[in-house]
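hey so i finally got around to running the thing on that chain from the lab meeting. sorry it took forever, my laptop kept dying and i had to restart like 3 times. anyway pasting the input first so we r on the same page abt which one it is
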Amino acid sequence: MTDIADTRRLFAKPQNLNDAYGPPSNFLEIDVTNPETVGMGRNRFTTYEVRLKTNLPIFKLKESCVRRRYSDFEWLRAELERESKVVVPPLPGKALIRQLPFRGDDGIFDDSFIEERRQGLEQFLNKVAGHPLAQNERCLHMFLQEESVDKSYTPAKVRQA
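ok and heres what got predicted. didnt touch it at all, straight out
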């Protein structure tokens, strides 16, 4: 007698309208929006608005909105690499060639470059924040939810409330 795999369907409970259209059981939405270039000359840089919406219990705020610059993203990536067991994805590149003088465009302040970088930063944050181990890192919570990043903080794990 030969063994035949059981291919019958599992019977799931029927889905009602609340299940289909109600809020998801767990969600984490992070958007990087509204780039703003500030400053003049060599002190010029672009900041991005980072918006978080979640119902995950690990986050103390269910909604937050902060402004971050590219160097803050670099800090977060370095902290996660140093403190967590997570393989951290790369950030969008530094664009060194765009910083050369006499290019005939706005270089790193060109609208198309800022939009490309914004998309890359949003992808980076969603990959990182979606990882269960990264969600326990204090640096991620500080980056997403506190008005300013304290780069002299003490690394630690976040406990659920």
